[in-house]
Automatic annotation (TrEMBL), chain A:
<dbReference type="GO" id="GO:0005886">
    <property type="term" value="C:plasma membrane"/>
</dbReference>
<dbReference type="InterPro" id="IPR039428">
    <property type="entry name" value="NUOK/Mnh_C1-like"/>
</dbReference>
<comment type="similarity">
    <text>Belongs to the CPA3 antiporters (TC 2.A.63) subunit C family.</text>
</comment>
<feature type="transmembrane region" description="Helical">
    <location>
        <begin position="71"/>
        <end position="92"/>
    </location>
</feature>
<protein>
    <submittedName>
        <fullName>PH adaptation potassium efflux system C transmembrane protein</fullName>
    </submittedName>
</protein>
<feature type="transmembrane region" description="Helical">
    <location>
        <begin position="6"/>
        <end position="21"/>
    </location>
</feature>
<keyword id="KW-1003">Cell membrane</keyword>
<keyword id="KW-1133">Transmembrane helix</keyword>
<dbReference type="Pfam" id="PF00420">
    <property type="entry name" value="Oxidored_q2"/>
</dbReference>
Automatic annotation (TrEMBL), chain B:
<dbReference type="GO" id="GO:0005886">
    <property type="term" value="C:plasma membrane"/>
</dbReference>
<feature type="domain" description="MrpA C-terminal/MbhE">
    <location>
        <begin position="684"/>
        <end position="764"/>
    </location>
</feature>
<feature type="transmembrane region" description="Helical">
    <location>
        <begin position="270"/>
        <end position="291"/>
    </location>
</feature>
<keyword id="KW-0812">Transmembrane</keyword>
<keyword id="KW-0472">Membrane</keyword>
<dbReference type="Pfam" id="PF04039">
    <property type="entry name" value="MnhB"/>
</dbReference>
<feature type="transmembrane region" description="Helical">
    <location>
        <begin position="568"/>
        <end position="585"/>
    </location>
</feature>
<feature type="transmembrane region" description="Helical">
    <location>
        <begin position="242"/>
        <end position="264"/>
    </location>
</feature>
<feature type="domain" description="NADH-Ubiquinone oxidoreductase (complex I) chain 5 N-terminal">
    <location>
        <begin position="65"/>
        <end position="110"/>
    </location>
</feature>
Length: 110, 927
């Protein structure tokens, strides 16, 4: 199971990074989304993989998954949305002002 | 009163431009003069106590933990410098008013002058080394701005830059020296440092301290070989040169020598370093001054030479030489300021500063000529003028040192040689400019300057004469009280008189005068000799190395910083991969000891689905809509992963965010080209793919290393144990968010709010033209009746769901974040299905206000705890929980969560509606 999740994190990271290195703003947004998934999974994995042990306290149960990474990831997801939205609108604005959706703002490919 | 002198002058620096705007050029000058006169009057008011032998201290604590205090002291030395700074300052203000032309911005000039004057007063009055250093750096900055006053001129900019580079570099060394000194003494207060002279001299760190401080002093006072910035600084307007480069700024260095004389002087390193550099500077600059063709250049080198003389006097390190040093500081300030002003008049009235063209000006401007000749005679050390007295004292001291034997025997000889050169360049200044035939090709017909341009020179020359003729009645008391604070004890006997009988110093003076006259007579021969063997000048070496550094930097920058964000990112990732790879390669066990968990078929299947979807996102990156849909698949599998790995809160949040993000990107896609062509070359894509694989591999290895090791459970155990009794909630994730790490949540929601406001601001500038045709053109029935009616009841259900998720959040999966997202989704659905404007009328509320209320709620719940004398945010709940029932505790956290809820609703609605609204404006959604 560990090998599987590690593979998934690695693949998502690689795909995200590759898209981040592309020239168009929308592709970069896609890459950022993939990278966010990877990072969130990675963070969650830092609390180790626990199954059927949600951190909801119940009387008589002593076995819980680590709540700290979960709290971190929860805010990261919401902030991630804010960032994606900001980046998208920035890309739109850049396209209006520069006439191109290149991340470098170059006008060679309108 | 004392601390206010420099501080008020600094503050008043903003007045002259205002005064000038309000009431013309004279108003600026008057304001500046008034402020300076006030400072001068304050110093005079405080001076009786100083003359009776007291040292005044005043100030406040500033950062006592760091040893930095706003403390000031007024003793004899400080008073002397304070009077020089404000007195000569007043004359410069008057001079500048008539010197600068109509085109020059007088307000800016006076503002900078006051800034500089305040900083200079701060240096001499500071009683704290760190404070002194701050003022020291401020003078460097002020001098940079003043030298570059005529900034359209390239030489002014170059001179200013050079001066700043050299003096600020020295300031850095000085900071090091001061820190060491403060460390040795245990205090940065000058009063403590001055009392700890013996401790400092015995300390092993003495030499390093001395070297660093001297580096600061020598750069500021333009000592060889760091002198080269001063001649370049002559690009400044002449009032600046008269002020900064004769009386004040360059004197800051020798001031520091005098100030720290009791602490650092009278050791071998001091004698050889200070005395040696001083002697070398004295000789070299006196020699160089003779060959300058520019009158200001001649004066600049002469200033360097005289500063060398003063440095040498302090370097000799006896009380008597210190007295002579202080005396020469006074005299030099007076005659050099008047000489610079005279040179400025000549430049002003002839438009030329080259002595090969300026000849025979005596008949055009006899009054100025007499003044300049007197001042130059003072510089040469002619009897009846002030320069003669201190030079005589200097000669006497060199003989005294020679009596001690050793290398000192050479000193009187070298001193006489320097005297010869000094007379020669003074003679050149007098004879070349005012006699020596007729002017050649001057841009203007020379004439006497306006009355008030000459007044400051007249005053200064009269002072030269008074000091030179009746020293004991004029400068005597001031010199004595200043010298006491330098020597740090009773003064040795010395006599201030013109006539000491026929003795060796008098012979040396006579030799210097005669030799100088001869040398000037034979100058043609000397000029030829110099042209054949030019000296390697520091400026050239400095310039060459500076150019080399700059061009190398440009090349590196041009290569690295080519404007391509992709390139920067690639560099960043490449570096990260290398650093990580190095860490991996340097050993350590990769796999930990924890046994792996079994793999189940469902997980494998979902992981495969995710892998395919992620790869397809990359593969279809150019078909943007398709890529977005496949990306959604990835997101949904991630949601399932959260469910699988016991993170129900995350699953709920991710699911709702997924929907919101997709709507957002769909809205954005309308403004971007639907398809993109292949941009990069194959090699580039292969390189990126390689980099991406390396990064992915690195992250995977890192995750593997962690997952196969046992976790640290201390924090987890603490949180699990205290969540219910301390935070009052069974959902530990939610308790962490609203209680344990409430401050983080406050920060994060604030970031979210800022992002939303940023988006609103960005969209206020408009959007690009949509690339897709409006919906109306594609579909006649944009808002099907069934859909429109169908979604309305859903709103109620969604809101009920949100309320349910919110209320149970503290004990079961849910909470403000999720509830906010659910609410926003319910609202957005209404907008999507129905007519935008109609929905906005029914549901329209001010989302920005919603965000503000949410933030306010969070902050208020936090502040409530401070009312109970508990730290901000967190402790409130614990505090309120103990004395009261658990019920109340939950309510308190809930207000916080309500704030989060409101912010999330507000932010999501604001972002989506802003994008959607822009569409209506473009006529896309509703028309």
């Amino acid at each position: 199971m560990e090998l599987l999740i590690v593979g998934v994190i690695g693949l998502l990271t690689a795909c995200g990074v590759y898209l981040l290195l592309r020239a168009r703003s929308f592709t970069v947004v896609l890459g950022l989304a993939l990278l966010s998934y990877a990072v969130n999974l990675f963070l969650l994995a830092m609390g180790r993989l626990a199954m059927h042990r949600p951190p909801i306290l119940e009387p008589g149960r002593w076995d819980y998954s680590d709540p700290v990474p979960q709290a971190l990831v929860l805010t990261a997801i919401v902030i991630g949305f804010g960032m994606t939205a900001f980046l998208t609108v920035l890309a739109l604005r850049a396209r209006k002002d520069l006439g191109s959706d290149q991340v470098d703002g170059s006008r060679t490919h309108p | 009163m004392l601390p206010f002198i420099p501080l008020i002058v600094l503050l008043a620096a903003m007045l002259p431009p205002l005064a000038e705007r309000y009431d013309g050029r004279n108003a600026g000058a008057w304001t500046t003069a008034l402020v300076t006169a006030l400072a001068l009057a304050a110093l005079l008011f405080l001076s009786p106590a100083v003359f009776s032998g007291g040292v005044q201290r005043a100030g406040w604590e500033w950062l006592p933990e760091l040893g930095l205090n706003l403390s000031f002291r007024l003793d004899g030395l400080a008073l002397l410098f304070g009077l020089l700074i404000t007195g000569i300052g007043l004359l410069v203000i008057l001079y500048a008013r008539y010197y600068l032309s109509e085109h020059d911005n007088l307000g800016r000039f006076y503002s900078l002058l006051l800034l500089f004057m305040g900083a200079m007063l701060g240096i001499v009055l500071a009683d704290n080394l760190l404070l002194l250093l701050m003022f020291w750096e401020l003078t460097s900055l002020g001098s940079f701005l003043l030298i570059g006053y005529w900034h359209p001129r390239a030489d002014a900019r170059r001179g200013a830059r050079l001066a700043l580079t050299v003096t600020a570099g020295g300031g850095l060394a000085l900071l090091g020296g001061f820190l060491l000194l403060g460390h040795i003494v245990g205090s940065f207060e000058l009063s403590a440092v001055l009392a700890a002279g013996e401790t400092v001299k015995q300390h092993p760190g003495y030499l390093a301290t001395l070297l660093l401080i001297l580096l600061g002093v020598f750069t500021k006072s333009a000592q060889f070989p760091l002198h080269f910035w001063l001649p370049q600084a002559m690009a400044a307007p002449t009032p600046v040169s008269a002020y900064l480069h004769s009386a004040t700024m360059v004197k800051a260095g020798v001031f520091l020598l005098a100030r720290l004389f009791p602490v650092l002087a009278d050791t071998d390193p001091w004698f050889f370093l200070v005395g040696g550099v001083g002697l070398l500077t004295l000789l070299f600059a006196a020699y160089a001054a003779l060959f300058q063709h520019d009158i200001k250049g001649l004066l600049a080198y002469s200033t360097i030479s005289h500063l060398g003389l003063i440095t040498l006097l302090f370097g000799l390190g006896t009380p008597l030489t210190a007295v002579a040093g202080v005396f020469h500081i006074i005299n030099h300030a007076i005659f050099k300021a008047s000489l610079f002003m005279a040179a400025g008049i000549i430049d002003h009235e002839t438009g030329c500063r080259d002595m090969r063209q300026l000849n025979g000006l005596f008949k055009f401007m006899p009054q100025t000529a007499v003044l300049a000749i007197l001042a130059a005679a003072a510089m040469a050390g002619v009897p009846l003028l002030n320069g003669f007295l201190s030079k005589e004292m200097f000669f006497a001291q060199t003989i005294h040192s020679a009596a001690l034997g050793g290398a000192g025997v050479l000193l009187p000889v070298l001193a006489t040689v320097a005297g010869v050169f000094s007379v020669a360049y003074s003679a050149r200044f007098i004879h070349d400019v005012f006699f020596n035939g007729e002017p050649i090709n001057l841009p203007r017909i020379p004439h006497e300057p306006p009355r008030y341009l000459r007044v400051p020179v007249e005053i200064l020359v009269v002072v030269c004469l008074l000091v030179g003729i009746v020293p004991a009645y004029t400068v005597g008391p001031m010199l004595a009280v200043a010298a006491v604070s330098v020597v740090g004890g009773p003064l040795p006997p010395y006599s201030l008189a013109i006539w000491h009988g026929f003795n060796l110093p008098l012979l040396m003076s006579a030799l210097a005068l005669a030799g100088g006259a001869c040398m000037y007579g034979q100058r043609q021969w000397l000029f030829r000799l110099r042209d054949r063997y030019p000296l390697p000048v520091g400026k050239i070496l400095f310039g060459r190395s500076q150019r080399a550094v700059i061009s190398a930097t440009r090349q590196i920058t041009g290569w690295l910083e080519n404007g391509s964000l992709q390139c920067y990112l690639a560099w960043l990732l490449g570096t990260a991969v290398l650093a990580g790879g190095w860490g991996l390669a340097s050993g350590g066990k990769l796999t930990g000891e924890v046994p792996l968990q079994p793999l189940d078929g469902l997980s494998l299947l979902l992981a495969l689905l995710l892998a395919v979807a992620a790869l397809l996102t990359v593969f279809w990156q150019r078909q943007r809509l398709t890529a977005l849909i496949v990306l959604g698949v990835v997101g949904l599998v991630v949601v399932l992963a959260f469910v699988r790995f016991s993170a129900p809160d995350l699953a709920l949040t991710q699911l709702t965010v997924e929907v919101v993000t997709t709507i957002l990107l769909l809205l954005a896609l309308r403004f971007l080209p639907a398809e993109a062509m292949v941009e990069s070359a194959l090699s580039r894509r292969l390189r990126d793919a390689g980099l991406a694989i390396m990064v992915g591999l690195g992250v995977a290895i890192l995750a593997w290393g962690v997952l196969t090791r046992a976790p640290h459970t201390a924090l987890v155990d603490y949180l699990l144990a205290t969540s219910l009794p301390g935070g009052g909630g069974a959902n530990v994730v939610n308790v962490i968010l609203v209680d344990f790490r409430g401050f983080d949540t406050l920060g994060e929601t604030t970031v979210l709010a800022i992002a939303a406001l940023g988006i609103v601001a960005l969209l206020a500038g408009g959007l690009p033209t949509p690339t897709a045709p409006p919906v109306a053109a594609r579909d006649a029935d944009r808002h099907p009746l069934l859909l429109r009616m169908g979604v309305r009841p859903i709103l109620a259900v969604t809101l009920l769901l949100a309320a349910y998720v919110f209320l149970r959040g503290h004990n079961l999966p849910g909470g403000g974040f999720v509830a906010g997202l659910v609410t926003a989704l319910g609202l957005v659905t209404q907008y999507l299905a129905g007519d935008f404007r109609w929905t906005a009328e029914k549901l329209g509320f001010d989302h920005q206000r919603l965000i503000a209320v949410g933030l306010l709620l969070i902050a208020l719940t936090g502040l409530m705890s401070t009312a109970f004398d508990h730290p901000f945010l967190t402790s409130t709940f614990a505090h309120l929980h103990f004395p009261l029932t658990g019920e109340f505790e939950i309510a308190s956290a809930m207000i916080f969560d309500l704030g989060v809820y409101l912010i999330v609703v507000g932010v999501v609605m604001l972002i989506l509606l802003e994008l959607g609204q822009s569409e209506t404006a473009e006529g896309a959604w509703n028309c």
